[in-house]
Amino acid sequence: MEWIRIETRDGVTAFLPGETVEGTVGWHFDAPARSVEVRLLWYTEGKGDQDVGVVASVPLANPGADEIRPFQIRLPAGPYSFSGRLISLVWALEAVAEPGSRAERLPITVSPTRQEILLSSGASLAGPG
Amino acid sequence: MRARDNPFAVRRVHAIRYRLSGVTWEELLERLATLGFRAALVGPHGHGKTTLLEDLGARLAERGFQIRTATLRQGERWLGPARSAALFRDPDPRDLLLVDGAEQLDPLSWWTLRLRSRGAAGLIITSHRPGLLPTLHEHRTTPELLAGIVTDLEGTADEGEIAELFARHRGDLRLALRELYDVRSRGVS
């Protein structure tokens, strides 16, 4: 059975803005993938249509059919992970292989407190600058 | 309740697929074939026409058609360059055009769409009123349908709440589900 998985080092999924995320991508396909890349993205969830922003992508050179590879991605300064009643902003790491757009997504938290900002608490969402 | 935990968040609602009633997918596709793959999905706002169009497109793609889509938002009266390109650039005889909201096109734009679609394998539209093309399927929602969707999203459905919502929104499931989003976000169950 074919699969693709993404994991962070020690299973940590809460980070500070600007921190570097380290992890591994593993996959098993029937044939070598044409491409495998790791993406850092955010997406919205809630009452409105979903919005997605891919902030960074790290292609893995010459992927085979069955491998485990390390990756590193530097997180931006913002926006922070947050949730209100109408909208949540969620950060995630995603491993994508072509052909077939086989993918696995791993949600992570990015904020100065390493916890999602809850808007009802009155906390500020503004990043530096 | 956090937006991402709300069972009626748009992503979750959009994942609900169309539930055919009184006809099977095979029967619907056979009927579409007898209409020469030129037909309309007819029904009021929020009754599932867009969802059915998407699900029909997926099944037709499995059968070898190349699906090309265009969606007109409320008030848009013509296709414009981007949507025209999506429908007509590099045409192929296997192209099957799906146009959501076609009844909004002004008469010239509708005539142009029909003319330019002649080389395609077919044209399926959604419309609030019959008459533009032969009706493939006429949509009517029911409280039972709303209850089924709510159960899928939330695990349970209150009969009284469903009946009230359905009546207040006159069968518009989109509005009913949006109201449920607001209600749940305020922590009311």
Average pLDDT reading of chain B: 94
Number of strands of chain B: 5
Q: Unreliable runs of chain B, pLDDT <50, ≥5 residues?
A: none
At the fourth CATH level, what is the homologous superfamily of the largest domain in chain B? Answer: P-loop containing nucleotide triphosphate hydrolases
Report the helical percentage of chain A: under 10%
CATH topology of the largest domain in chain B: Rossmann fold
Query: What is the CATH first-level class name of the largest domain in chain B?
Result: Alpha Beta
Query: Largest sheet of chain B, order of strands side by side?
Result: 2-3-4-1-5
Write the layout of secondary structure elements.
The complex is a heterodimer of chains A (129) and B (189).
Chain A: E1 3-8, E2 14-15, E3 20-28, E4 35-46, E5 52-60, E6 66-74, E7 82-83, E8 87-98, E9 102-110, E10 117-118
Parallel strand pairs in A: 2-9, 7-10
Antiparallel strand pairs in A: 1-3, 3-6, 4-5, 4-8, 7-8, 8-9
Chain B: H1 10-14, H2 25-34, E1 38-42, H3 49-62, E2 66-71, H4 80-88, E3 95-100, H5 107-116, E4 122-127, E5 135-138, H6 143-154, H7 159-168, H8 173-185
Parallel strand pairs in B: 1-4, 1-5, 2-3, 3-4
Description of the molecule:
The complex is a heterodimer of chains A (129) and B (189). Chain A is mostly beta strands and 129 residues long. Chain A has one domain (3-113): Immunoglobulin-like (Sandwich). Chain A has no helices and ten strands. The radius of gyration of chain A is 16 Å and the shape is globular. The termini of chain A are far apart. The relative contact order of chain A is 0.29. The model of chain A has no long low-confidence stretch (mean pLDDT 92). By secondary structure, chain B is α/β, with parallel strands linked by helices. Chain B has two domains: 3-16 and 141-184, no CATH class; 35-138, P-loop containing nucleotide triphosphate hydrolases (Rossmann fold), CATH 3.40.50.300. Helices cover 44% and strands 14% of the residues of chain B. Chain B has eight helices and five strands, in the order H-H-E-H-E-H-E-H-E-E-H-H-H. Chain B has a five-stranded parallel sheet with strand order 2-3-4-1-5, sandwiched between helices. In chain B, helix 4 links the parallel strand 2 and strand 3 (95-100). In chain B, helix 6 crosses helix 7 (159-168). The radius of gyration of chain B is 18 Å and the shape is elongated. The chains are: A mainly beta (129), B alpha/beta (189). The A-B interface holds A 45-50, 83-88, 90, 116, 118 and B 1-6, 9-11, 178, 181-182, 185-186.
